[in-house]
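User: Sequence in, structure out. Go.
Assistant: Echoing your sequence, followed by the structure tokens.
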Amino acid sequence: MKSYPLPSLLSIGLALAASPLAASASNQPHDLRPWCSHVVLPQSGVIRTAPATAQGAHAGAAVEVRGVDADISIVDGIATTKLTIAVGNASASPQEAEVLLPVPRGAVISGFALEGISGNPAPAASYDVLAKDAAIATYRTIVEQLRDPALLEFAGDQLLRSHVFPVEAGGTRTIRVSYEEVLTGDGQRLDYALARSESLGLAVPWSIDVSVRSSSVIADVYSPTHGLEARSTGPHARSLKVAARADGRLEPGPFRLSVLGGDGPVATTLFSSQDPDGRGGWFLLLAGIGDVPAREDLPPREVSLVIDRSGSMGGAKFDQAIAAARQVLEGLDFGEAIQIIDYASDVERFAPAPVIKTKANLPALRAYLDGLKAKGGTNLDGALQLALRTDVIEGFLPVVLFLTDGLPTEGESREHVIRDRAMEGNVHARRIFTFGVGYDVNASLLDAIADRSRGRATYVGPAENVEIAVADVFQDLSGPVLTDLEFQVASADGVEDVRLVRDVYPGIMPDLYEGDRLLLVGRYTEPRAGQFRLEGTSAAGKVTHTLDVDFAKALAKNLFVPRLWAMRRIAALEDSIRQAGANPAALASLQDDPKFQETVAEMLQLATEHGILTDSTAFLAREGTQLGDASELLATACQISCDNNGARSGASGVAQQSNIVSNRGQAWVNGSNTLYDEEGKAVANGGVQTIQGRTYFRRGARWTAGALALDEAAQAAPGSEVIVGTPEYTTLCETLLRCGRAAELTLEGEILLEIDGKVTLIKQPH
């Protein structure tokens, strides 16, 4: 990634400081100006300052934030953030407002404008920029005078405070703010952050668009906090949009983004987060594809299309499956290989072995697909065995695309036997990508077959299109750049080290295709140096990439890392239970197995510590679940896990396995704990909140810290009670501010938390 010499950075700052926009900032001391009636905080909403109400500072606010559009441009390490803030007045009378906007330290305001009323030109807008100390003083004023801790979430940033402006009755004013900053990071990685509230109650509509340009190759653009939708990609430019949830809202919390540059086939960077005791912690290794070889230099693919033509596939599903197969056939390059295997009660194939696609045999391949008819049973095991045991063409990457819409009814039908035979029979290391069409599939079986072969499972709902699902996966398999990946750890002097890390996921690493990334998470056990090595096969032969690490320098930051690790750890534990239940004999005695109870206990502990809900632990966030009794909660979790394990197929079975697959491959924190329901809909859960790395569960009007969720005594008799607005509350705010935990006070209602070993209940005044 391009670096910048000091003179060029100074010139940027001096040029901006000398601009007319910078000169419009007021020099009036911030503490001489009283607050106007509505203080607009775009990150979280509006604070109403007068008249004060017993219900809280937000009650009855006439002015509201109707939307924030963020346009972020990163060019060779310089980030320009442009915010367009729409402020509306829903009342029948004019109102006054001012804006408080957290701005990163070191950023320079390059634009501030206020659109006029009713089309009239606006007067020159003015504002104050409060440095860290003045900003913290402003935060304290908000808390002490207005009893609203909303700003404490952004302590540490600069603060832009606009002068007062009117908002006409029923009207909308638009504020445009832009600022520039020089990004920092680690090695070839640059990091960007945009402050937003972590509160699940955030009602302000946001949209975030990002463009990245670099004179160096961009290996990856990654957000650990939000899902990204790529609009366009290239070696030196990316255009992305932050993905919205099903309800149209963005995930709450700050938006973090990392740009990874790299030369060569792979680029890597490390994020680490220290345990509270400082003796260990978590890590996330991010690997992206750097320079991509020319298409002709990449290994050719050998694709086996395995198509279910049983009677249940008849109609639109089968038509879509054949159309998907045609897309794959046409999408393969001449010189790549294909095999077509079709199965019902029997198993047939186009040729005894995969054939090289040529202009001469293409008509015959098309005709074979067009001649397939849906009828008969489902010999799933027979089709798998034929696909896996056939010899591969030397030098080709063997891939299987396996489609089915039902449970096995012919040949071997036992789930655990089919799974084990597939693992043992995959002697040529074929990558298996499974597609479960509809709900009458054994989702845990399809997932196990795919995951253990460096492939992945895809579930196509009854209302979804098979052709589109297959096409999306096949498009991702374009250009295998690095295959047969292995992860190794060595000491600082290069000797194999088996003690430095543990619980690393994924255990079996996928191949990296063009545009892919690898996220490897794990725990480190000691604060010392070492080496991480990624070994794989590229077009040029064996590749070894080494990254020096030093966990002695890790800090208690990057709080997304332990959460992402916990999500994958829970997915592995939950899947181990489901795979054990593949054998009916084991399923019948599962609840009496001590290992099962230990596994569920660990899942429960991780769920309460990291605030991660799964199908087995979602009951923790439901009203009516009594937190505090650890043994009762464990018994409930065990019973739910057993009941869930009995659902091997159907809508429930597919939803459960989809959630495991989602957690296993999750690249961002999923703060709203979105899970798939039995209708295949992604549903957010507001009963649990993770804020600054700490978990809280909501019961009625009270939020209880996850660390106390299993402690009945602490919940029943907290050590002290603090009333909002009292001197004791101010002291508590100061303490949490020093600890970097002030954002926890933004939870609405009562808060039961632990600070310095003492349990405190924060209550609202009567």
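User: And one key feature?
Assistant: The chain has four domains: 6-261, 266-295+481-553, 299-478, 560-686.
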